[in-house]
Amino acid sequence: MNKAQATKIHRRLLSVNQALTKVDEAISELNKEDRAVFSEPMADLWGLLHGKALRVIYARYPELRPTPDDFDEISSDLQWKDVTLPNAISEADLDVVILSKLKSHSPKVAKIIGNVMTAFDERGLPIGEKIVGARIRWLADVGRIESFGDLRKWRYSEIALKG
Questions:
Q1: CATH code for 73-163?
Q2: Region 41-55: what's the mean pLDDT?
Q3: pTM for the model
Q4: If you count Cβ atoms within 10 Å of the first and of the last residue's Cβ in the chain, which end, N or C, has fewer?
């Protein structure tokens, strides 16, 4: 694959990224049960796109890799100090679920947020995605997890267990 071919493939993969974003927006309007049906397949698609396909391009042509400033799509600016948790969920409960979804590799923050929300939904304890995102940022800020990228940009940042 030469650079011209890589550039063409890269542009098309970024178009797929935009399409998946629109799909996610449509899914977010569904009820809890219908959203849950899409949770795993969408996480798999995001993982394949960012974790595999785009990495092939960036491994051969790192100059095509966008910088964090190229993405101005902030998912949430909510800070932990501004969060009020639902009565049935404690900080410790939330931390346990978040940490249980992490591995030593670095999945996208969006995937972890979806997995955490699904875990609480299964317990009958719905929690907002912005609350989970704020707690993830706090965990990174205090050094309990590793982070890569701007954690306000869920699809473009990653987190992992320390170590």
A1: 1.10.10.10
A2: 86
A3: 0.61
A4: C
